[in-house]
Fold:
Amino acid sequence: MRLDKFLKVSRLIKRRTVANEACDAEKVTVNGKVARASYEVKINDIIEINMGKTPLKVKVLKIADNVGKDDASSLYEAVK
Structure:
């Protein structure tokens, strides 16, 4: 699954266009490297989003195309 779509489905970023713009602005890294929106997300990838005051770092646990709002957080876990 594409990085921008994963960010939207997991509700880490509200809209796919915003996720795409964040990737273009180099505010999203995967495994320590700046990632493009077209990056194919894999299980165990570490995604860091540097938007706002504090960066958000998560580990991908599962990949799913459609997830309900309540289950979105089951796709990832926070990493310190």
